[in-house]
């Protein structure tokens, strides 16, 4: 979903990051508030004041989104779910889950708390707005309070629409899941509703563009496309879990992996392995036992004039625990680990001996074939 991210802060163990796409929406929101919303609501203020109001209100909006997503993450943690963190991106924010909820109750609690937190923030800022009006606080402060109250009300209302993957769609999925006890069926139904809602947004976006609101129409089309893609992806993830869960990684591994001996030179390693097979890491094996790993990064650090006499033994290092699994490890857990770490090749080790390599490509090929044959 995301491109490059920048870490902002760690809140109670949750990493809050921003995607580079967020910069675009931050500028757009600040600009539209400073040149459109606030000047139309509050006349005859200095231009500089409008810009201060716009920037502060935009910060209030994104702080509200962080609190909204943080509430999801906190409740998910209490339900035993692994959360990767919170990321702000072009369409707002998302709490990144490492796995599906364990049961309908966990999904319901995690989903409903987001809109409730937005309602709470909206009421708090509406209280500040009312207090400011009755006590003649400065207009810029009152205006910002009113905007943050309104936008949190809209955020809560939008998220309560029963269209997956919005919070309301997740609430619907939890109820359908509880009713029939079938997560795949519940996800399919709620995802289809989410896709229909996305198509409505796209169609309405084109309608608005046709009648002159070019920016608003384009924005609705982009949100619709994002929601449609997210709904379809969520259903595929559930199907993937159903197919792979319980399958041991030994079913997918290549039992004769390409390995290197510690005695060969770096020059030979380059010519016979890196340039031939194009892998970025090779296991180092001696008499059948895994004794380490050698990577492209290590080789790059060796000066060219030393590559003819330096050996793999001089470079090898301990393999990362994330690079190794046992043959009976659950394939779905391994796939989740690959997704989390970005590692596409994992070594299968038993009693210190390398017995195979499992790759993301092989797992996806198996998944594609099984879905085609058992659709």
Summed up:
Helices cover 60% and strands 14% of the residues. By secondary structure, the protein is an alpha/beta fold.
- Helical proportion? 55-70%
**N-to-C order of helices and strands:** EEHHEEHHHHHHEEHHEHEEH
Task: State the end-to-end distance.
Answer: 26 Å
Whole-number radius of gyration?
26 Å
User: Major sheet: order of its strands?
Assistant: 1-2-3-4
Q: Quick check: average pLDDT?
A: 84
Residue stretches low in confidence (pLDDT < 50, at least 5 long) are: none
How would you characterize the overall build of this protein?
This protein has 375 residues and is α/β, with parallel strands linked by helices. Helix content is 60%, strand content 14%. It has helices at 21-41, 47-78, 104-134, 139-159, 167-180, 183-210, 214-244, 266-277, 296-300, 312-315, 331-341, 360-373; strands at 5-11, 14-19, 83-89, 92-97, 281-286, 289-295, 324-325, 345-350, 353-359. The strands form three sheets. The chain has a four-stranded mixed β-sheet with strand order 1-2-3-4. A three-stranded mixed β-sheet has the order 7-8-9. Strands 5-6 form a two-stranded antiparallel sheet. Helix 11 (331-341) links the parallel strand 7 (324-325) and strand 8. Helix 2 (47-78) packs antiparallel against helix 3 (104-134) and helix 3 packs antiparallel against helix 5. The longest helix is centred in the N-terminal third of the chain and has 32 residues, at 47-78.
